[in-house]
Amino acid sequence: MKDDLGDRIKRFYEDALRIHVPRQTHVVLRIDGRGFHQFTRGLERPYCRRLADALDAAALALCQEMTGCRFAYGQSDEYSFLLMDCQSEKSPLWFDGNLQKIVSVAASFFTAAFARQFASPKLASFDCRALVIAQPREVEKYFIWRQLDASANSLNMLASDHYSHKELLGRGEAEKHDLLHAKGINWARQPADFKRGRAVRRAPQGTWLIDHDIPVFHRKLSYLRAQWPAPMAPVLTP
What we know:
This protein has helices at residues 2-14, 36-39, 49-65, 99-117, 136-160, 165-168, 173-182, 192-196, 221-225, and strands at 26-33, 69-75, 78-84, 126-133, 198-202, 208-211. The chain has 238 residues and is α+β, with helices and mostly antiparallel strands.
């Protein structure tokens, strides 16, 4: 009876919501800090190296855990991971593409790895969403978008460290640069990872490493294109 009941529950309820991502494509996971405005209150501003290092360490651990992971990019309180199974017909994908397992395990693993690195009396948690992107050029655009967001965020954080919310209200990016220059501060001279984010990528020998000096993606697309292989040509059957 126990086995029959279990089979019925799984068939009627669990399997009804069991979704698999399409195969032979690119899956992007974006892991984002939940309520991090509160979690980071009181930390060093405008850039907390200890927080960034903990996020990097968590991302590195998750890259090593996920089958099919090719690249990760982090900025602010988020990290995006690229998973691929289109290198060959037999390329595996993490949890065989089971979406519920992918997003739940990714979020929980990242949260646990972050907590191990970042001691805090507050509880940190992260959510995870998945995107399926068929075209490699669209994957490039995704990472360009997240890096543009990183640059805008870093400018806002730097300006907020020297001016009040009221003083910055309604100011565009050019005006914020001018305000910073008025105080002798040049955003362009800030650390590269503060302005552009960080990446976790594979070294030539196959090990994973954290890259703190990444280029501007849309100016050097070769950097992104070197991180993951081109998908295999489709097999045409008569």
